[in-house]
Amino acid sequence: MAQILLLHSAYGLRPAVHDAAERLRAAGHTVHTPDLYDGQVFDDLEAGMAHREEIGTDELLRRAVGAAAPLLTPGTRLVYAGLSLGGALAQNLALADERALGLLLLHGTSDVRDEAVTEVPVQLHVAEPDPFETEDWLNAWYLRMRKAGAEVEVHRYRGAGHLFTDPALPDYDEEASEAAWAAALGFLAELDAALG
Fold first, then answer.
1. Rounded to whole angstroms, how far apart are CA atoms 84 and 162?
2. What is the biggest distance separating any 2 CA atoms in the chain, rounded to whole angstroms?
3. Most CB within 10 Å of its CB: which of 57, 77, 88, 171?
4. How many CA atoms lie within 13 A of 21 on its CB side?
5. pLDDT digits (tens, 9 = 90+) for 2-20
6. How far is residue 180's CA from residue 20's CA, in Å, rounded to a whole number?
């Protein structure tokens, strides 16, 4: 089964992240959920975003790299996964790891450099529309990921809020959340099968 690094959103390491990890563990996967906020958790998006800005993108990426490093033992291929901000960080890590097994993005992406090269399978789950992942942005992101060589599968959920998998947030959409997790588990099963 897959070794998964699951990175939290700008809200911090909320109960929904632990619940997501348990859902993945129940399917047999090993899941690591590092706390990039040193214990800070937010119920308000503005507060979470302010904390993210206070830490800074470079420092958050450094913390994410530090969380991944002990897991990158010989013979281990990681699935990088993340929620919103965590998705953006996970994408950066996966594109820098030529042995990455997969990239599972929920609610968030990151820019793709022109020189990026990867064959990583990618599955993205995003609300439609999403104020943080606009149509133009997603179209450009998709084209850049394909140009880099990634296999990309995009799932869109019309009418759902941005972070629709967190039951404690106003964005929550039970139907979209269950559909996303079902597809994600299928994606992970395919990655396992590819490992042989």
1. 8
2. 44
3. 88
4. 19
5. 999 999 999 999 999 999 9
6. 11
As a whole number of angstroms, the distance between CA 87 and CA 167 comes to 18
DSSP state of 127: E
* Distance from C-alpha of 155 to C-alpha of 106, rounded to nearest angstrom: 10
Q: Residue 163 burial (CB < 10 Å; 0-12/13-18/19+)?
A: buried
CATH architecture of 3-195: 3-Layer(aba) Sandwich (3.40)
Q: What is the pLDDT of residues 77-130, one digit of tens each?
A: 999 999 999 999 999 999 999 999 999 999 999 999 988 999 999 999 999 999
Tokens of 195: 């490992």
The C-alpha atoms of residue 125 and residue 163 are separated, in whole angstroms, by: 10
CB neighbour list of residue 83: distance below 8 Å, 6 or more residues apart: 6, 7, 8, 9, 17, 20, 106, 107, 108, 163, 165, 166
Residue type, 101: L
